[in-house]
Design goal:
Blueprint lengths: L1 H11 L2 H9 L6 H9 L2 H9 L14 E4 L6 H13 L8 E6 L2 H13 L5 E5 L5 H7 L8 E5 L4 H5 L26 H7 L2 H12 L4 H10 L7 H9 L4 H16 L1 H15 L5 E6 L2 H16 L3 E3 L9 H6 L7 E7 L4
Parallel strand pairs: 1-2, 1-4, 2-3, 4-5
Antiparallel strand pairs: 5-7, 6-7
Helix pairs in contact: 1-5, 2-5, 10-11, 10-13, 12-13, 14-15
The chain binds S-adenosylmethionine.
Amino acid sequence: MERLILKVLLKNYTKMARFVERIFHVPVMLRELIDFFFFAPRELMRKYFSKKPIMIDIEEVPEIFVDTTAGGGGHLFSLINYYQKIFPKKFKNAIFIGLDIDKDAVHYLEEKRKKFGINNLFIYWENYVNIRKLFAEIYFPQKPCRILFDLGVSFHQVKIPERGFSFDNEGIIDMRFDQVSQRKSALDIIRESNLERMERILREFGEEAKAKKIAKKIFQKKREIKTTYDLKSLILSISGKKSVSRVFQALRIAVNNELENLKIGLEEAFLLLKNKGRLAVITYHSLEDRIVKEFFNYCEKEGKGRVLTPKPVTSSLEEIKNNLAARSGKLRVFLKYEKI
Ligand SMILES: C[S@@+](CC[C@H](N)C(=O)[O-])C[C@H]1O[C@@H](n2cnc3c(N)ncnc32)[C@H](O)[C@@H]1O
C-alpha cells in the first residue's frame, strides 16, 4: 500500500510539488530520499545494495524534519505530502523546518507555505552552520530525526543572469548565495586576489589541471573582467569548456566558503540529530562527496551509528534523461545509533 502511494505520488507528482518545481527547482533523487527517510534499514540494504540486512530495530514514526537547503522546496514539500498521505493521523504533530541562506528562496518558500496553508512548516533565512543555535533559540518539542542537505545551486539561482552563477547567461560575476549579508562577490575575489591565491582557488576548489596558466591570465586581466561572458571567453582562449565549468565551480566554492561550511554544518547537524535519526546528504562534485564520505566513515568508526549507503546512491537513467543536473548527484545517508 505504502509503495503504491509512493508510486502514484512520484508519478503524477502532487499539485504542490509540480507547482514548486516548475518555477524554482527540480529536486534530485526524490524517490530515493523518501525511501532512505522512511524505509527500515534492512529493506534499504535489500533494495539498493542486495546486501545482508542491517538488523537494527528502528524507531517510531519520525516527527521532526529539517531541510537545511530548502531552495524551491521540491524535497521539502514532497516529504510533507508523502507524510500526510502515509501517516494522516500523525501529521498534525509532525514539524517540518526549511532553511536557506538565499533570501529569494526564503520568500518563495514562505509564499508556498501560505498558499498551501501548511501550519506545521517553519521557514528560516539561515546558514545551516547555525542549525544547532537555531534549535537552541526556538523552542521545538524534540530534536530532529531527519536532516537533509541538498548541496549546490538551485535552478532559480542558475537561471537568473544577475546572480552570475552560470556561464550560459551574461551577468556580473556575483555568485553569492546570500546577496544580503555576504559582502564579497566572486568578482571581488577576482579583483582582490594575488596570483598565488587565485591559483590555489582554481587548484583546490576546481581541481583544474591548468590552474597556473588560467590564474595568470585572470590575474593579468582582472581589471577588464566584469561579466560571466568575459571570464568564459578568457578561459576559452587558453583551455576547453570543462575548464570553464571548473573555474566557475572554484569561484563559487570560494565566495560562499562552501567546503568549510559543509564540514561545520555536518558536525552541527549530527550533534543535533536525535538518536536513531538519519542524516542524508546529496552532493554534486567530488570535493563535497569526499567530505561527506569521510565524515560518515569517521562517525561509524567512533561507534556513533551506521552508514546506510555503503556506496553512494545515484539517479536512475530515466531521471537523468529528464533532468541533466541529476547526473552528478550522489546521495549518502547515515543512521545515528548511539548506545546510551
Ligand atoms: C540544490 S538547492 C536545493 C534545492 C532543494 N532541495 C529543492 O528541492 O528545491 C541548494 C540550496 O542550498 C542553499 N544553500 C547553500 N549554502 C547554504 C548554507 N550554508 N546554508 C543554507 N542554505 C544554503 C542555496 O541557496 C540553494 O537554495
